[in-house]
Design goal:
CATH topology of the largest domain: Aspartate Aminotransferase, domain 2
Domain Aminotransferase class I/classII large: 83-413
Number of helices: 15
Distance between the termini: 60 Å
Cofactor: pyridoxal 5'-phosphate
CATH architecture of the largest domain: 3-Layer(aba) Sandwich
CATH superfamily of the largest domain: Type I PLP-dependent aspartate aminotransferase-like (Major domain)
Shape: globular
Structural class: alpha/beta
Enzyme class: transferase
Radius of gyration: 22 Å
Order of helices and strands: HHHHHEHHEHEHEEHEEEHHHEEHEEEH
Number of strands: 13
Protein name: Aminotransferase
Largest sheet: 7 strands, mixed
Number of domains: 3
Strand content: 5-15%
Oligomer: single chain
Family: Belongs to the class-I pyridoxal-phosphate-dependent aminotransferase family.
Length: 413
Amino acid sequence: MEGLRRRQLHVLRRAGLAWWRLQGGQDREGRAVRRSPAASGARPLTSTVSAQARRALAAGLPDFPWDRLEPAKAAAAKHPDGLVDLSIGTPVDPVPAVIRAALADASDAPGYPLTAGTPGLREAIRGWVARWCEPSGDGFGVLPTIGSKELVAWLPTLLGIGPGDTVVIPRVCYPTYEVGVQLSGATVVRADSLTSVGPARVRLVWVNSPSNPTGRVLPPAHLRKVVDWARERGAIVASDECYLPLSWESSPVSILSVCDGSFDNVLAVHSLSKRSNLAGYRAGFVAGDPALVDELLQVRKHSGMIVPAPVQAAMVAALGDEAHVEEQRERYARRRVVLRTAFERAGFTVEHSEAGLYLWLTRGEDSWSTVDWLAERGILAAPGAFYGPAGERHVRVALTASDERVAAAAARL
């Protein structure tokens, strides 16, 4: 522990993430572990942990959204022509051959991989960031992650944010932002305008452009104001940019492009799940403030958050090839036209949706009523209620179904 910084020690020492809680009272083989008796008169520490204590973290979280959608999915699956699943947004198209070959070639990997990523991977990430994010300088750090969701969920905790701190998330957003705040013990505030946050001690601000679920794109001036606001208060800005390569009617920009040459207090989160069909590989990365990236690296090294070596090799191949990205983008563009036309003809209004992987739709009713209406036609969509109270009259429709299933949905509508 001598090499840990004071802030990292704070993360490991917090009661909610105590070593005993993390280990669950077992060794690596699953055997019960007994600790030395406490001082005289004190209750000894043993492997006995009450059910309430073991379940406390999970008990404080909301129901998993996709579990709540199961009844609608079952109803939609009864359609004579089968289910058209436009809900979760999981890729269905093949993993590009160049990426599969790189994974296979690196599969003989008996040793531990580097948490920081191989030199080749770090170079590939830096090259991709330079091309796609147009950073205002080259002094940014990079770090591979096990997909983007785990980083989103654990970022507040990894940064030492906890009880008494506030994290700002968009009013309508990816549910894992809020879950990550709850895991850390901090307080969540939903706000699209930082002037409405008030005097709270804000430690982290999430922005998301293009947005999941709305497809809204934030202009550069807005992103720059968020960075300035956060820096004035010593807060960190985390920008979820996983859908940056999927622009339709508006061109999104990375927050790294508006930092005026300094990346202090700024992190950009990216994923290869959608651009390269690698959701099954769990491949992502974070770039930005080199001090923060190093802080994340040190804690992740201790906690074993490591991208497997074959996946690191696959990421190098994916980041170095843009032909497959353009091919996939063209697939999504065709499906988007078919679905948007069909939903509009069926009386839906499409809002935002100028970039990203989804259509944000409304019929002017409760989102669960719309989900049921679509399920009667064998189509499954995600209720806007999943993404916050402000989304309760919308549904999210993903472009990630095959051409045949997209055509089936259009015909049913």
